[in-house]
Design brief:
Helix content of chain A: 40-55%
CATH architecture of chain A: 3-Layer(aba) Sandwich
Distance between the termini of chain A: 25 Å
Number of helices of chain A: 10
Order of helices and strands of chain A: EHHEHHHHHHHEEH
Largest sheet of chain A: 4 strands, mixed
Oligomer: homodimer
Chain lengths: 211, 211
């Protein structure tokens, strides 16, 4: 019953919790039959507009965030070395590269490659060696892609994507969108899947009740 | 294997997401054999100290919060009428009453009663009619409890509880603590249970892998 279903995966390279989603969407696709559309946008721009700064200047909450991500990576069997460099210095450019990747159809490959270097090797996205190595891993020529990603056209495309996210009420990364229904956080992926299948989170007849 | 296990349930009456935990802990206790210690504390005081204001002045994130809680209440089969009055005007007093209740052993009954009136009937905790009706539902004399809750001893006990939470690194409500390991958010209850049973979130041999 799930064939052909799609979920928009709105993400920012630079979001920490998004690592957990980036690393498991392919296996979720394989097991659920749902297709994810990878949609990079500048969540940080929206967060600054909305005075939403969950970690900057919040050392207690930040320490918890790393511990929580580390525990959940263990739960999902995803390797991790924390803390990773944060916040990113080349955030916007890392995501402009993702916009090129989305246009050309290798966004998942690039995003997984750059996140893996960030969270497993401590290398920042958006600059070398992470940048060029991730592009090569995704089968691309770094010089060509970096030139394209620096163009005004791509900068505008990232802004347009951010505008689309803002119009949907999206305020952070990752967000899963099923039509106009949005689910924020890696920990809402199951809810988004259930919504895409049933249009509700209420228990289905015959399904085991969640506790 | 879980007999005798305990989890500290740190909560603030006034936290919206805590409604989901308050309303389901008893059934979780029944199905898991884990006992929850209800520990009221002043999360707002800690949040103000840490400049952590997740919803005040953030209309987009607040609108999402209500929608998310409404959807998840549906998932858990918990009745809800949103938005409930927020933030609470009598937050500190509502929690001083909870401290009396915790000392005397009827904290779960009071907290469930007052949250039900708040989230199902739109009546604020910490003031009438919610306050007295919830106390009566918990089998208590409102006059006696209200007098006791206004005492300096109880005000100090709430401060001491808040100090204990702060020392554990707790910064929000609800938080589940398994020894020194803390799990923040209603959506981390399953993680806290797994941790209390296995001391890790990593998949156990023979257990089905989470996706």
């Amino acid at each position: 019953m799930t064939a052909g279903r799609q979920i928009d995966f709105w993400f920012l390279i630079g979001s920490t919790y998004s690592y957990l989603s980036v690393m498991r969407l392919q296996s979720v696709e394989a097991s659920s039959g749902i297709r994810f559309n990878w949609r990079p946008f500048n969540a940080r721009e929206i967060m600054v507009e909305q005075n939403n700064r969950p970690f900057v200047g919040k050392p207690v909450k930040s320490a918890y965030m790393w511990r929580d991500i580390e525990r959940r990576a263990g739960k999902y069997g995803i390797p991790i070395r924390t803390p990773a460099p944060y916040p990113l210095t080349q955030l916007e450019f890392a995501n402009q590269v993702a916009v090129v990747a989305a246009e050309e159809g290798w966004c998942a490959a690039y995003t997984m490659a750059t996140y893996r270097r960030w969270f497993q090797m401590g290398l920042e996205p958006g600059k070398d060696p992470n940048l060029s190595d991730s592009l090569r891993e995704a089968g691309q020529d770094p010089d060509r892609v970096i030139r394209e990603a620096r163009s005004e056209r791509i900068a505008n495309a990232l802004k347009a994507a951010t505008d689309s996210a803002r119009a949907l009420g999206i305020f952070g990364s990752p967000t899963f969108a099923v039509g106009n229904e949005i689910f924020w956080g890696d920990d809402r992926l199951d809810d988004a899947i259930a919504w895409s299948q049933h249009g509700t989170l209420q228990s289905q007849p015959g399904a085991p009740a969640p506790h």
